Amino acid sequence: MTDAPIERTLILVKPDGVRRGLSGEVLRRVEAKGYVLAAVKLVDADPAVLAQHYAEHEGKPFYQPLVEFMLSGKVLAVVAEGQGVIPGFRSLAGATDPTAAAPGTIRGDLGRDWGLKVQQNLVHGSDSAESATREIGLWFPELG
Ligand code: RTP
Ligand code: MG
Question: In this protein, which residues make up the domain named Nucleoside diphosphate kinase-like (predicted)?
Answer without folding.
Answer: 6-144
